[in-house]
Structures are given as C-alpha cells and as structure tokens.
Amino acid sequence: MKDYIEATLSNRNLTFNEMKEAAKLLFDEGTDAAEISKLLTALAVKGETADEVAALASVMETYALRPEFPDRSYIDNCGTGGDGCNSFNISTASAFVMAASGVHVAKHGNRKISSASGSHDVLEELGIHNDLTMAETEEMMERVGIAFLYAPNVHPKMKRIGEIRRQIGTPTIFNLVGPLTNPVALTAQYTGINRKEFVMEYAAVLSMLGRKRAVVVSGAGGADEATLAGRNTLVLADNGDLIPFTLTPEDVGLMPASLDAIRGGDAAHNAAIIRSIFNGNRGPEFDTVALNAGIGLFTEGAVKTVKEGVRMAEESILSGKAKRRLEDSAEFCAQRLKQAVSQ
C-alpha cells in the first residue's frame, strides 16, 4: 500500500492493474486504516482518473451481493454526491417520478457521508427502511416497480471503508465509484458528477461497464444533478458512442433559478420538500425534479427527447402517480415490519 500512496502523493496516476491491486488492499481487513485514509485522500488531491475509478469498481463488483430481479430493463439515477451544493435529495425524488412513469428503477444509495442527508436518510424519513432482506427487495421491485439497494447491505466489504470515509469527511474516489457499483445488471443509467472536465471519461467508464445507454451530467453551478442555474454539461453514451451535449432549463420549457432555490437540510427537512413536490406545489424544487426525472426517462429510452421526458415527469407528479408510488413503497415497508414483529 505504501508504494501506491507514495506514487499518488508524487502526482502519478495509477495504472488500471495497479489500482486493482490497491483496491484489494483497501478491502483487506489487515490493511491499516490510516494507510487507507492516506491513499483515499492522496487520490482526491491528485484527482482520480477513469482507469483508477474503473479498476476500483471492477474489484467492488466481485464482492457485491446481487438481487435476483426478472430479466428486463432497469435504470439507476444515483449520483456521486459530494458536490457541496447542499441541495435536497433530488435523485431520490426523481426515482419515484421515473418509476411512476413506468420504468423499473433500481436505486443504489447510502446514508450521509459528506452531505447533510444521504438518500437512505431521507428514505427513512419517508417511511422506507433499508433493512429489507434480499427477498423482500426483490418482492418490492415486483410490486412497486422500484427498489432501494442500501450500499452497506449489498457491499458488505464497505462497512470498514464507510467508517474511514466518515472520518475523512470530504469526497473520495468512492463517491465516483458508488454509482458504478449497483449490483443489478442495469440497462441504462443516469448519473451526475461535480467534475465538468470528467464527464466524458465517466460516460466512457459506464459504457465499458456494459450500460447500453447512459447519461452523465455535471450541473450548472457545480452540482452533481442537472440544475436550473444555467447550462448543464452532459454526455450520452449510446451503445458505445459518446455524444456530448448541453442543456439549459429554457431548452425544456422551464424557468431558470439559482442553486439557493434548491437548498436542502437534514433528512426531515428534505422529506418535507419531497412531499410538497409530490403534492403538486410548483417551484424550483418541483422543476428540478422534473428536469432530472425527464433526463432519466430519456436515458432509459421511454421518450425520444429530454423535453418529452420533462413533460412526462410533470404529468406523473401532477396526476398524483409519483405520490402514490412513494406511498406504496412506504406501505410495503410498513407491512414487512409488521410481519417481522409478529413472527
């Protein structure tokens, strides 16, 4: 491990094979926690490369526990997080809207590490628990059309790493790797990163990992979501082709708004925002969810253009379908909890 730390500290990028060996050491219980912290910090300071990210993802994949979902198309819209924008849980809200629009969403996520509220913190506030068994997760997907994969449950090797990441307190390579390690065989993926210069490389990694279609966004204002704050930078990976494009809110019929308009807080605060959106309250939060859900629907192929996706997302919210999808998810978890208590 010391060799990899020294190489990274000297600003040398690790090769794919070097990073694979380093990754195995990261997950080795015998590796000193301080050395793990040093490597993660050094990689972040240097700036992670596509090879380093892909190598770590390939090692993590070998340790993952996989749900047995039926053979069909699945999409995830998990972002990298760590953008420092303190927005509410946009991708979590968007996932319900996408599912309500008829696509199957396998949402990968975690608790807060470098933000005020991670996806599973807000899900818990919304009544959706992360302690479902794998069989219950599979049943939830069949009944509700959406399932939530809590990273520590499907990546048991991540428990120790998670503790080290919390101690570091700032984004690491695991933020970049997180969206790449969904154990479901995804057909499509929509994800965001806060590194505009890395969008093309990240899309290439998703294509290498077998996604037939994927969209990567670096949001205006430095967010890891598409925002209303200006011109968003995106790349579409379509069966191996990498197609860059940009998108403003005006392009899809939405009004611009600053990042301040989508600020979030703790899990309870963010859950209240999501409920308000699903009750049909229009505003920047509503439009930001519609924008991101619309891009997700375009990524999955449910619509031909992002603008069509935004209109579909708006309809899913205003018709009450997104709210019902949230309620159905919470009800499913409540029933499982009652069954567990009665046994």
TrEMBL record:
Q: Which residues cross the membrane?
A: none
Superkingdom of the organism of origin: Bacteria
Requisite cofactors: Mg(2+)
InterPro entries given for it? Anthranilate_Pribosyl_Tfrase (IPR005940), Glycosyl_Trfase_fam3 (IPR000312), Glycosyl_Trfase_fam3_N_dom (IPR017459), Glycosyl_Trfase_fam3_N_dom_sf (IPR036320), Nuc_phospho_transferase (IPR035902)
Q: Where does 5-phospho-alpha-D-ribose 1-diphosphate bind?
A: 79, 82-83, 87, 89-92, 107-115, 119
Which residue numbers delimit the Glycosyl transferase family 3 N-terminal domain? 2-60
Q: Where does Mg(2+) 1 bind?
A: S91, E225
Look up the record and name the pathway of this protein.
Answer: Amino-acid biosynthesis; L-tryptophan biosynthesis; L-tryptophan from chorismate: step 2/5
Please tell me whether the keyword Metal-binding is annotated for this protein.
yes
Q: Give the top-level enzyme category.
A: transferase
Q: Which UniProt keywords apply?
A: Amino-acid biosynthesis, Aromatic amino acid biosynthesis, Glycosyltransferase, Magnesium, Metal-binding, Transferase, Tryptophan biosynthesis
Q: Any idea which positions bind Mg(2+) 2?
A: D224, E225
Any one GO molecular function term:
anthranilate phosphoribosyltransferase activity
Chemical reaction(s) catalysed = N-(5-phospho-beta-D-ribosyl)anthranilate + diphosphate = 5-phospho-alpha-D-ribose 1-diphosphate + anthranilate
Q: How is the cofactor bound?
A: Binds 2 magnesium ions per monomer.
Q: How does it assemble?
A: Homodimer.
The function of this protein is:
Catalyzes the transfer of the phosphoribosyl group of 5-phosphorylribose-1-pyrophosphate (PRPP) to anthranilate to yield N-(5'-phosphoribosyl)-anthranilate (PRA).
The molecule here is called Anthranilate phosphoribosyltransferase
Q: Which organism is it from?
A: Sporosarcina aquimarina
Q: What is the lineage of its organism?
A: Bacteria, Bacillati, Bacillota, Bacilli, Bacillales
